[in-house]
TrEMBL record:
Its cofactor is [4Fe-4S] cluster. One of its GO terms (cellular component) is cytoplasm. Keywords: 4Fe-4S, Electron transport, Iron, Iron-sulfur, Metal-binding, Transport. It comes from Hydrocarboniclastica marina. SUPFAM superfamilies: 4Fe-4S ferredoxins. InterPro entries: 4Fe4S_Fe-S-bd, 4Fe4S_Fe_S_CS, PSI_iron-sulfur_center, YfhL-like. GO terms for molecular function: 4 iron, 4 sulfur cluster binding; metal ion binding. The keyword Nuclease does not apply. It comes from the Bacteria. This is Ferredoxin. Pfam families: Fer4. Residues 1-29 form the 4Fe-4S ferredoxin-type domain.
Length: 82
């Protein structure tokens, strides 16, 4: 599953540099996560780094992009080839 940043985002800039897949970018008033690049840090870390540093806990799992652990690992492998 990809993650999503909710409207509770305070645009604090701490999540973007933590993303190893460069999936987080500035949006219109809050940051956004590109689901095609988000692996929930699978392949890099045990836990999603953006969730760990978020001061307002506004980065839940995106129910619109449900993926298994195997799918996240495959996405990680594919991103490494880019």
């Amino acid at each position: 599953m990809a993650l999503i940043i909710t409207d509770d985002c305070i645009n604090c800039d701490v999540c973007e540099p933590e993303c190893p897949n460069e999936a987080i970018t500035p949006g219109d008033g809050l940051y956004v996560i590109a689901p095609e690049r988000c692996t929930q840090c699978v392949g890099h870390y045990v836990e999603p780094q953006c969730q760990l540093v978020c001061p307002v806990d506004c980065i839940p799992v995106d129910p619109a992009h449900v993926e298994s652990e195997a799918q996240l690992k495959e996405k990680f492998r594919r991103l490494q080839l880019d």
